[in-house]
Amino acid sequence: MTTPVFTAPDAAEDVTRMRRAFAAAARDLQVSPSGQEVWGWQGRTLGRRVGTSWLRLVSAPSEKAGGRLWEGTALADTAVPRSVPRPQLRELLDWTCGSYGYRAELTELVTTPAVVAGSPVLDRDPGLPDAWWRDLRAVSRALAAVPTDREAVRQSWIDRNFRRFLDIDPPRISDRTTGHADLHWANLTAPALVVLDWEGWGQVPVGYDPGLLHAYSLTIPTVAARLRYEFADVLDTPAGRAGELVALGQLLQACSRGVHPQLAPLVARRAEHLTGVPAPTP
């Protein structure tokens, strides 16, 4: 069973605050909500269908509003080629109310469902067609060609955490590429591929994106094997293995905080397969 991580905030007052801010954004953008609520990571975002568009509200304490995650969707809309299938941004709205900052993003409505709803972790074999895998490879190639100075994964995180979560010395990552940086099954649609949630995209270690998606697939071995096959030219290289280990280390950190506990032994086993060193199981 997967662990829900896309849920409403724990505090009732935060749920009310987000709903009021969402309603205010809808009024200002002159759209009418018509779909069910979709909460993002730990209630930080709230989205709903609004006619033929999608309205997504992002919230943070005012002193933390802005920056890489705040600007990711808008920057991706201009920097990433349209050959990469994703929702097109239509309007933006920023404001502060009390001690919170808000950004409302009005985007093209995607009607194709996510492979998994409510969790990044694969919970079944979705029977993805060959064309879907070809499209995913094409997305990876197109994104790799996008120049950016956005840094999605920092060397400082690797230096601090590799010994703790993988029990190996941290590598110096020299091979980087532009990636989505949050490639999981709730951010990919099928049967037609659309890539969702561009807030975190930027420079990542080579192998990070396929390594992360592979880790989220370990619950379904047939899909994990297919992904390894499709991205063997990346994952079966020294640089690709290092990038995959970064993804595994970050997931093990999340598991240590109670997120995706069912993944912890699978991710630890995969890390040991790559390093030959048992990873501490959270």
Cα-atom radius of gyration? 19 Å
Shape category: globular
Quaternary assembly: single chain
Category from helices, strands and their pairing: alpha+beta
Q: Element order, helices and strands?
A: HEEEHEEHHEEHHHHH
Proportion of residues in helical segments:
25-40%
Mean pLDDT: 94
Strand content: 15-25%
CATH topology of the largest domain: Aminoglycoside 3'-phosphotransferase, Chain: A, domain 2
SS element count, helices: 9
How many domain regions?
2
Let me know the number of strands.
Answer: 7
Can you tell me the residue ranges where pLDDT is under 50 for at least 5 consecutive residues?
none
Gap from first CA to last CA: 18 Å
Note the main sheet: 5 strands, antiparallel
Strand order of the largest sheet: 1-2-3-5-4
Report the top-level CATH class of the largest domain. Answer: Alpha Beta
> CATH architecture of the largest domain, please?
Alpha-Beta Complex
Description of the structure:
This protein has about 280 residues and is α+β, with helices and mostly antiparallel strands. The protein folds into two domains: about 10-110, Phosphorylase Kinase, domain 1; about 130-275, Alpha-Beta Complex (Aminoglycoside 3'-phosphotransferase, Chain: A, domain 2), CATH 3.90.1200. Helices cover about 40% and strands about 15% of the residues. The chain is built from nine helices and seven strands, in the order H-E-E-E-H-E-E-H-H-E-E-H-H-H-H-H. The protein has helices at about 10-30, 70-80, 130-145, 155-165, 210-215, 220-230, 230-235, 240-255, 265-275, and strands spanning about 40, 45-50, 55-60, 90-95, 100-110, 175-180, 200-205. The strands form two sheets. Strands 1-2-3-5-4 form a five-stranded antiparallel beta sheet, with helices on both faces. Strand 2 (about 45-50) and strand 3 (about 55-60) form a beta hairpin. Helix 5 (about 210-215) packs antiparallel against helix 6 (about 220-230) and helix 8 packs antiparallel against helix 9 (about 265-275). The longest helix has 19 residues, at about 240-255. The radius of gyration is 19 Å and the shape is globular. The mean pLDDT is about 95.
